[in-house]
Amino acid sequence: MDNILGSMTLNNEVLDKFNVQIVAPLGGTHNLHWLVDCRGERLVLRRWWSTSTDNIDYELRLLTSVAAQGWPVAPAVESPIEVDGHYWCLFPYLPGEPPSVDNRMLEQRARGRLLAQFHDDLAKLNGFGQREGWRRCEEILNDPALDIMLSKQEQRQPEEIRILRWHLERARERVAGLNLQARPGIVIHGDFTPWNLRFLDGCLSGILDFDLSHWNHRVADFALSWRGMHDDIVRAYDEVSPLELEEWELLTPAWWAWLIEDACRDIKRGIPVDEWTIKHILRRSPLMGRDSAVFR
């Protein structure tokens, strides 16, 4: 990934095309962002990590649709442009600060309720199929390529692969009796975490980072918000929008499938299974039911 200063130097053509000046770098994990001034207005300049116009269009259409429902998101100010193999776009700047996590239980419960309300509106969206490069839990777990990737890495990381393989097989067992293909889906946010929310004067002022948004089971949105440990998020969600028995059963396999698929993508690129993945897949929660006991 380009460093910030290097990107700023490279992007003079972009600044000229948008007629903006950089105020400050805002960073980013995949997409890079800068706060810019456009004729006295503060906007956000993004450099997309993706070079797929279909992928970018999916997110831009989603932002426009969500904004039309009254949620504080940032639809593009104008169409993206391509410069030096990267796509660039301007977005409104959403003011505010992330929620306080001093009281984690209160923050998680508030976020769980908010996610349930958000899902209620996301379920009303039409015209959104699956996003390029994404698939639902059952498709991931049924993919024999996962077994191939794990076997490929087994000699180098035997203990890590033992752990991943056990969780893959267990996830497959847990979903075997569920008719997941027949279950409805919605477009989910994908990363509904405190750092992707903004509040101003006690009111929600921004939902950021739809980079992981795609069509899935609604409980798949707990993958990165629950993370196998933040149970109050799920419980508060259930109080607003009760989960069905099949959804409770799917909660854990959906989380494990996300971790395993991501690890197998890394293996395919020659990247070892990292400590973060193993640490998270070994987490246990009472919400995991029969798999809530510590793995050995």
Explained architecture:
The strands form three sheets. Strands 1-2-3-5-4 form a five-stranded antiparallel beta sheet, covered by helices on one side. A two-stranded antiparallel ribbon has the order 6-9. A two-stranded antiparallel sheet has the order 7-8. A hairpin with a 4-residue loop joins strand 1 and strand 2 (32-38). The protein has 296 residues and is of the alpha+beta class. It is built from eleven helices and nine strands.
Blueprint (SSEs and pairs):
Blueprint: H1 4-10, H2 12-18, E1 21-27, E2 32-38, E3 41-47, H3 53-68, E4 81-83, E5 86-92, H4 104-122, H5 137-141, H6 145-153, H7 158-175, E6 186-188, E7 197-200, E8 203-207, E9 214-216, H8 223-226, H9 231-240, H10 245-268, H11 275-281
Antiparallel strand pairs: 1-2, 2-3, 3-5, 4-5, 6-9, 7-8
Helix pairs in contact: 4-9, 6-7, 6-10, 7-10
Helix content range? 40-55%
Averaged pLDDT: 93
Span between N and C termini? 37 Å
Structural class: alpha+beta
What gross morphology would you assign? globular
Proportion of residues in β-strands = 15-25%
Query: Which stretches are poorly predicted, pLDDT < 50 over at least 5 residues?
Result: 1-10
Please give the count of helices: 11
Secondary structure: number of strands? 9
- Biggest β-sheet strands, sense, barrel: 5 strands, antiparallel
Order of helices and strands: HHEEEHEEHHHHEEEEHHHH
C-alpha-based Rg, rounded: 20 Å
Question: Strands across the major sheet, in which order?
Answer: 1-2-3-5-4
The oligomerization state is: single chain
